[in-house]
Amino acid sequence: MTSPLSSLLLQKQLADLLKNPVDGFSAGLLDEKNIFVWNVSIIGPPDTTYEGGFFNATMTFPEDYPNSPPTVKFTSEMWHPNVYPDGKVCISILHPPGDDPHGYELATERWTPVHSVESIVVSIISMLSSPNDESPANVDAAIQWRQDKEGFRKKVSRCVRLSHEMM
């Protein structure tokens, strides 16, 4: 069952973002009738390989938001160590709250209800600027990031070019 609190909180966050836009991204509903699925457009951060790109993602919130994190999945092609080949973003703050069963992350690095759409997207922009290749979601991208910077740059440049065609 959908929590009225979840809907109200998401409506407030959306209104805040529309009233006070944040540099580097825009967000809105994918379908005006569903507050739980958002479209997010992220501008590739300056001075990174992703600079100049316009990357779209879908942010899907669970019914118990903010107690559980949303999932974020790029719909634009993305080549990054922390993005699964299917586009799903893998960063600590999007992992369920509590202790990491694998012991890689501290509970303080994982999801907490204080996060907002803004803090999530700012974390994703930071991820684009500084990949974490220690626990990659895309092993091939992480290996290329470490061992073949030029090849990695070329693959990302292709994603940046494709992002303009999808606009």
Automatic annotation (TrEMBL):
InterPro entries: Ub_conjugating_enzyme, UBC, UBQ-conjugating_AS, UBQ-conjugating_enzyme/RWD. One of its GO terms (molecular function) is ATP binding. Transmembrane segments: none annotated. Accepts the ubiquitin from the E1 complex and catalyzes its covalent attachment to other proteins. Involved in the formation of multiubiquitin chains. Signal the protein for selective degradation. This is E2 ubiquitin-conjugating enzyme. The keyword ATP-binding applies. It is an enzyme of class 2 (transferase). Keywords: ATP-binding, Nucleotide-binding, Transferase, Ubl conjugation pathway. Residues 5-165 form the UBC core domain. It comes from Saponaria officinalis. PANTHER family: UBIQUITIN-CONJUGATING ENZYME E2. Belongs to the ubiquitin-conjugating enzyme family.
